[in-house]
Amino acid sequence: MEEIIAYCGLNCSAYPAYIATQKDDYEEIKKVAEQWSNESMSFKPEDIYCDGCNSDERVFSWCKDCPTRNCCREHQLENCAYCTDYFCDNLKKTFGMDPTAKERLDDIRKNL
User: Fold this and answer.
1) CB atoms < 10 A from the CB of 32, how many?
2) Nearest to 50 by CA among 71, 36, 38
3) Structural domains in the chain (count)
4) Among positive and negative, which fits the CA dihedral 60, 65, 68, 71?
């Protein structure tokens, strides 16, 4: 499967929501919703459907309000690597969760 790099550098194509959506597997989508739900956040299966955050169609519900995604879309950037303010506060949480996101964006910046 081809990598789909999110605005923040995450690999969307490696995430369970994306994988389950591409398989069109409702039971797997339901399972992801249950696994990702906790005391502070609750997800329904319909929240999980995702074609990657660059998609205009189905996007994981949390990503619809993601400040990084919204910023890139507003500035018409492929991802944060193309931003003159790279890297800003929006990315700190992402990089803390997944340091490989920074590595991906850094690699893209090297080749610009």
Assistant:
1) 25
2) 36
3) 1
4) positive
What confidence tens digit (pLDDT) does each residue in 92-102 have? 888 988 899 99
Is 51 inside a domain boundary? yes
Contact 52, 68 (CB under 8 A): no
What CA–CA distances, in Å, run from 68 to 12, 72, 107?
Answer: 14, 6, 18
In 3D, which of 23, 49, 25 has the Cα closest to residue 36?
49
Distance CA 59, CA 66 (A): 11
pTM: 0.85
Tokens of 2: 């081809």
* Residues 6+ positions from 73 with CB-CB distance below 8 Å: 7
- Identify the domain containing residue 103 by its residue range: 12-110
Interval 56-65 mean pLDDT: 89
